[in-house]
Amino acid sequence: MADLETYGETPVRDIIVDSVPWADASDVLVFLMGPYRLLDPSYLYPGDGYPHPPDPLAPEGDNAAPDEIQATLRSICREVSKETQAAVFIASDVDIPTKREIATEGCAEPGLAVIDQSVAFAKASDGNAFVFTKAGLTTGTGAEAGAVPEYFRLREPGSRRRDPRSFCILSEAERSSGNQKTYEPKFSSASIDEMDDAYSLRFRYFADRNELEDKLIDFIESYVIPTK
Known about the structure:
The two termini are 24 Å apart. Strands 3, 4, 5, 6, 7 and 8 form a six-stranded mixed beta sheet that branches. This protein has a two-stranded antiparallel sheet with strand order 1-2. Helix 3 packs across helix 9 (209-227) and helix 5 crosses helix 6 (139-151). It is α/β, with parallel strands linked by helices. Helix content is 38%, strand content 16%. Helix 6 links the parallel strand 5 (127-132) and strand 6 (167-175).
């Protein structure tokens, strides 16, 4: 592995393209990072039967477990990819296992630590988006939202490795009821809320899945593709 650019002597970008069914070698790549599970009250209160909290990313349908948000994220990636010149993907789409998966499954390959995996996928991509929802288990995304901008030195304008406009934070919010389109954030974290000041990242809000897809499409077409 050379500076997270290759895995098993194969470029990480090539592995992403080969792994993601809707990706092509000529596509702009956009790495989408978001929660894979909902906060589960039964983890803190076992046996009490608390329901999963509502979330705009919770998958619909009888065959989808309500806490498997990654199913929705993958579907969003596919839909946004259809509408743009980009191939949008999540980490679990790519055939590079984490260290934990290697230990659990007993594979012979080395695997990547989760943060190294995130940085490698971000580095191989042309744009990166972080999704936060109030009911999503966002500890992993929060770690990525720190590690990835730090890797690209976004706090250092003179030595940045990438244009900060190619990064975007999308956070769940509630639309105002007035004529003016404003938002009241539903997800709140001081560290995340101030990342625009720390890293000059774009911040956008969404109230539902459709709006999230629209904001991703606009981000890709307005910033990722032009700054590629």
